[in-house]
Design goal:
Helices cover 57% and strands 7% of the residues. It is an alpha+beta fold and 238 residues long.
Length: 238
Amino acid sequence: MDIQPVRRFWDKVRIVENEGGFSITLDDKLVHTPGKRILVVPNHALAEALSTEWNSQNDTVEPGRIPLTRHANSTIDSGVLRRAEVIEEVVRYGATDLVCYRATDPPELIERQIAGWHPLVEWISSKFKIRLQIVSSILPVAQSRATIDGFRIAVSAFDDFPLTGLHAATAACGSLVIALGLAHGQLNAEVAWSLSQLDETYQLERWGQDAEAVNRRARLLTDIEVASQFMVLSGMGE
């Protein structure tokens, strides 16, 4: 749920300890989520990042300038209650993962896919014992039950707040494999974006790009950067 634009009404932003974590106050009034729950995050680092977002607002609160707060709100209002559903939504990306579908032509694109995606396929196999079926086709391939179960175990290991970040990263990348690589420090946000855009980048290099494509790709990069930051601040990797 998005925060609706409101006028800035506060002068001071503070971090306060709260039951189960840390909250933000605006002139000593606790920040609440759109669902009317108190905004409580699990650690001081994330709370500090949220306070910076609120401090940076001008005369009007702009939802686009509080992306970490929006992820925290989503976790509290929806992610915790829908945890099992969120996990299954993320796992479904693994069932038809981008990195499993390879081109048959031209050779340059094939080489880029192998160079960019194959190390991640090997890493997934080594870390999670997940064996992906790779095909040279646009038709869906059925991954094995063991593969899907492996993805479910990997995703279920995320606590609620990092899971929100993983969900966002997976959707932005169109790939659970790439998002897991990002979450576990195998990739930074820019590399994750580049790998998720590998096919499109190749086509744009050949045929050119328009303003709409430029803007859409820029938004995806921002989404991946924010999701990565949210996972790190939420304690992923500690």
